[in-house]
Specification:
single chain, 244 residues, mainly beta, two-stranded antiparallel ribbon, 8 strands
């Protein structure tokens, strides 16, 4: 067998060569993409949420019928930025003409923590109601007859990285075509539906009961920014905001 001999100069040159790199476009799969999911085809029920809801009893019962993640229906959602929150600021008057007494009269609404929001609730005959400041969007611009409903996240089937329940805002467009024409209802979309007693159900539905009516369509649901526990690990690819 012939022995391969390398001179000192050749060895020195090899030491300066860059390390071998994978072919262009080859990337290591994100850690979350490497997870393996399996389900039992004999017990899998697509009407329930999750890839294998029967494998974990904690996910079987809590998600309401017609809510986010059931039967392959997913509510449009958006998350508030983790930066400074939108602010609800009181108006004290109009200048010129505002007086010192008017300037001192309003009680400020506390500013919300970053990634959250505050709302101002009215009292008296106007209750329940109030105001909330949220990020603007072209979708809201195109649907001006939109109101917000404060919801418990689990009532809509929404989950958060910390597994806790949070307040979310369902933005309901009251001018949707289905509010005046039942045949315009889309069974893949989410609506605010009023039952015979006037109680509102926010959900998708295949067939609208004869004594129910559509009072609005869910444009999207605004979620607060909730960081995954342990996300600040020091490794960029473990961050929820990491992008390749």
């Amino acid at each position: 067998m012939m022995a391969l001999s390398l001179s000192g100069a050749t060895l020195g040159l090899l030491a300066w060569l860059p390390p071998a790199t994978p072919p262009c476009g080859a990337r290591r799969a994100h850690v979350r993409l490497q997870e393996k999911y399996e389900y039992d085809s004999k017990t899998f029920n697509p009407e329930l949420s999750g890839l294998n809801p029967q494998a974990n009893s904690a996910t079987v019962d809590w998600r309401p019928e017609g809510s986010h993640g059931t039967s392959s229906r997913f509510m449009p959602v958006t998350t508030v930025s983790k930066e400074s929150a939108p602010a609800v600021v009181c108006i004290a008057g109009v200048y010129p003409g505002v007086t010192a007494e008017q300037l001192q009269r309003p009680t400020p609404v506390p500013f919300a923590p970053a990634g959250k929001w505050n709302y101002h609730m009215l009292t008296g005959d106007a209750a329940p109601g109030g105001f909330v400041a949220i990020p603007g969007s072209p979708l809201l611009d195109m649907n001006p007859d939109t109101v917000a409903v404060v919801c418990a996240s689990r009532s809509l089937g929404l989950e958060f990285p910390d597994n806790a329940e949070h307040e979310v805002l369902a933005l309901i467009h009251r001018g949707d075509a289905a509010t005046v024409d039942r045949t315009a209802l889309d069974n893949t979309a989410f609506y605010a539906l009023a039952d015979a007693e006037g109680k509102v159900h926010i959900r998708w539905i295949n067939d609208l009961p004869p004594d129910w009516r559509v009072v609005g369509r869910v444009l999207f649901t605004q979620m607060p920014f909730v960081q995954r526990p342990g996300a600040a690990s020091g490794f960029a690819e473990m961050s929820d905001e990491f992008e390749f």
